[in-house]
């Protein structure tokens, strides 16, 4: 066994011991599954960083009062590893730049008491209207649709033998969570997000 294989095996054993102690299980679609320990392309037992290609992206822009300002062309936020670490908390960095998952019920996940919207904590892209949030019982913020389809990116996630659809922010390519087909009407979808990736902006007036 190579040093890389030994490191990966050690990381998996550590996680399984934590999971069996009840602290690190993910409720996914009504069943429990291991969160993403290592991103695709990981080497040396260290998760690979999320790659963010430079370029312009077309977003749907919203004012803090919820007004749809129409489509806008913005430059995708691209930062160095050091800049991301300075911009984000350690947990947010692990979730958003290493495809990690926060522990269930560890962050704010109940519906806010007032109207507003949720923005990406990294680049401020509008992601979800609070009116579409519901209590899924999973311990993560859950929404039945994004505020605008163009503001999120869907990608295939086949980690740990599961087929899932990962959701990233279109403005900075940061990992947000996953979407499942066990949500409420009218979409039947559950956009299961990490609290540390979101910033709630209350609607005033």
UniProtKB/TrEMBL annotation:
Superkingdom in the source lineage: Bacteria
Reaction it catalyzes: L-methionyl-[protein] + [thioredoxin]-disulfide + H2O = L-methionyl-(R)-S-oxide-[protein] + [thioredoxin]-dithiol
Keyword Protease: no
Pfam families for the chain: SelR
GO molecular function terms listed in the Swiss-Prot or TrEMBL record: peptide-methionine (R)-S-oxide reductase activity
Group of enzyme by EC: oxidoreductase
Keywords attached to this entry: Oxidoreductase
EC numbers on record: 1.8.4.12
InterPro entries referenced in this protein's UniProt entry, alphabetically: Met_Sox_Rdtase_MsrB, Met_Sox_Rdtase_MsrB_dom, Mss4-like_sf, TAT_signal
Residue stretches spanning the membrane: none
Domain MsrB, chain residue ranges per copy: 81-203
The name this protein goes by in its record: peptide-methionine (R)-S-oxide reductase
Gene name tied to this protein: msrB
């Amino acid at each position: 066994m190579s040093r890389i294989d030994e490191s990966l095996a050690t990381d998996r054993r550590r996680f399984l011991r934590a999971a069996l102690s009840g602290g690190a299980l993910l409720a996914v679609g009504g069943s429990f599954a291991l969160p993403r320990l290592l991103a695709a392309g990981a080497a040396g037992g260290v998760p690979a960083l999320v790659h963010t290609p430079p370029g312009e992206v077309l977003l749907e822009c919203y004012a803090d009062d919820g007004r749809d300002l129409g489509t806008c062309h913005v430059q995708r936020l691209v930062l160095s590893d050091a800049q991301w670490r300075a911009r984000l908390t350690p947990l947010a960095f692990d979730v958003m730049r290493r495809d990690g998952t926060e522990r269930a019920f560890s962050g704010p996940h109940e519906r806010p008491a007032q109207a507003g919207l949720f923005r990406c904590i990294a680049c401020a892209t509008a992601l979800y209207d609070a009116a579409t949030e519901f209590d899924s019982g999973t311990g993560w913020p859950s929404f039945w649709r994004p505020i605008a389809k163009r503001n999120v990116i869907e990608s295939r996630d086949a980690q740990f033998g599961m087929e899932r659809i990962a959701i990233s922010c279109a403005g900075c390519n940061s990992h947000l969570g996953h979407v499942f087909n066990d949500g409420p009407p009218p979409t039947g979808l559950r956009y299961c997000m990490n609290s540390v990736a979101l910033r709630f902006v209350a609607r005033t007036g």
